């Protein structure tokens, strides 16, 4: 099931990349997949999977190797931290854990960019808000369609 979700994410990511309008931030399907893995796997398996997904995203996008890996790793770590303190099956818990993971992903990106002294492109807060608003419905749909196999 894990590999099937990975191939589905790769297919949908390529499809969105071809059909999405230029200039808009597309939904982050790799973040959705990393959070699904974090929801269904223990942390010692979910965190390496998140790092691996980030490396795959870096290789597919010809990006800086490790940038997305650190972002998805920090997002999964934040999701694990938030889901331990909230009810993960209820709507406020899902929304807050997604928000916390989304902010941690971007904090990881900015941390790597600062560490490597990269020149960042101009990002408006509206771009980040739109990416979060486009990603959240896909996460909620995946949450609804794929029940958690992890037992409390």
Automatic annotation (TrEMBL):
<feature type="transmembrane region" description="Helical">
    <location>
        <begin position="62"/>
        <end position="82"/>
    </location>
</feature>
<comment type="similarity">
    <text>Belongs to the MreD family.</text>
</comment>
<feature type="transmembrane region" description="Helical">
    <location>
        <begin position="128"/>
        <end position="146"/>
    </location>
</feature>
<protein>
    <submittedName>
        <fullName>Rod shape-determining protein MreD</fullName>
    </submittedName>
</protein>
<keyword id="KW-0812">Transmembrane</keyword>
<dbReference type="GO" id="GO:0005886">
    <property type="term" value="C:plasma membrane"/>
</dbReference>
<dbReference type="Pfam" id="PF04093">
    <property type="entry name" value="MreD"/>
</dbReference>
<keyword id="KW-0133">Cell shape</keyword>
<keyword id="KW-1133">Transmembrane helix</keyword>
<dbReference type="GO" id="GO:0008360">
    <property type="term" value="P:regulation of cell shape"/>
</dbReference>
<keyword id="KW-0472">Membrane</keyword>
<keyword id="KW-1003">Cell membrane</keyword>
<dbReference type="InterPro" id="IPR007227">
    <property type="entry name" value="Cell_shape_determining_MreD"/>
</dbReference>
<feature type="transmembrane region" description="Helical">
    <location>
        <begin position="94"/>
        <end position="116"/>
    </location>
</feature>
């Amino acid at each position: 099931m894990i590999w099937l979700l990975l191939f589905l994410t790769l297919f949908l990511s390529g499809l969105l990349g071809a059909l999405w309008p230029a200039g808009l931030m597309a939904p982050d399907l790799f973040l959705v997949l990393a959070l699904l893995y974090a929801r269904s796997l223990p942390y010692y398996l979910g965190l390496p999977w998140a790092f691996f997904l980030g490396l795959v995203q870096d290789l597919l996008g010809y990006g800086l190797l490790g940038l997305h890996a650190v972002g998805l790793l920090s997002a999964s770590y934040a999701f694990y931290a938030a889901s331990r303190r909230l009810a993960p099956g209820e709507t406020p818990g899902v929304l807050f854990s997604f928000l916390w993971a989304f902010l941690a992903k971007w904090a990881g990106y900015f941390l790597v960019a600062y560490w490597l002294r990269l020149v960042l492109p101009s990002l408006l807060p509206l771009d980040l808000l739109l990416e979060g608003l486009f990603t959240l419905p896909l996460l909620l749909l995946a949450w609804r369609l794929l029940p958690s196999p992890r037992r409390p």
